[in-house]
Amino acid sequence: MNYLAHAYCSFREPGWLVGNMISDFVKGKKQYDYPPAIYTGIRLHRLIDTFTDSHAAVQEAKTVFRPHYRLYAGAFVDVSFDYFVANDPRCFADAAALESFAQFTYQTLQDHHDFLPEKFQGMLHYMRLQNWLYHYCSMWGMEKSFGGVVRRSQHLTDSATGFALFQQHLPLLQACYNAFSADLWPMLEEWRVAQIQGSDNTALQ
C-alpha cells in the first residue's frame, strides 16, 4: 500500500494518520519516542504492510511487474493500488471528496510538523506542492508516480515500462485490488474497534 492508501486507512484520526504516514521513516526504538496516538499509527502502518505482503491477490499483482523489476515489483503494485483507492467510490464519492481528503491529510501532517522525521518533512513539501494524493486518480498522475518510484530507488532507471505494464494489465490489477480490499477493509474495521474498546483507546486522545 502506498501513501494515499495508508492515509485513507487511518480513519481520519490525526495521530493515527501521522504515525501511519511516517512509519517507514521511523527506525527501531525511535517508535517509542512518539505520543500514544502517533505510535499507534506507526503500528497500524506495519500491520497493513504485513497483511498486504502476505495476501494472495497482492502476490498475483506482483507477477505483472516482477519479470522486469524483480524485487521492486512490490513498490509498483503499491503505487498501482493507490490508483484504485483514488477511484474507489467506497472510499471517495467523487473527485471533490478525494481533493478534500488530500488537503485534510496535508494539513494534518503540517499541524504535526515537529513530529515528522526530517526526511519526511522534505518529502511533504513536494507531496503537497504537487498534490500527489489527488493525482493518483489520473493516468497522468500515475505516470509521474511510477517515475517517482524509479527516482527513489538505487538501481532502477526505467519507469516507462512499469507504466506501460500498468496500463496493459489494468483489468488484472483491478481484480487483484478488489480481492485484496475485500479482505483489508473488514480487518481494519476490527482493528479500529479494538483500539476503541481495548487498552489502546488512549490513542484517540
Automatic annotation (TrEMBL):
This is DUF479 domain-containing protein. Pfam families: ACP_PD. InterPro entries: ACP_PD. GO terms for molecular function: [acyl-carrier-protein] phosphodiesterase activity. The keyword Zinc does not apply. It comes from Phnomibacter ginsenosidimutans. The keyword Lipid biosynthesis applies. Coiled coil: none annotated. GO terms for biological process: fatty acid biosynthetic process. Keywords: Hydrolase, Lipid biosynthesis, Lipid metabolism.
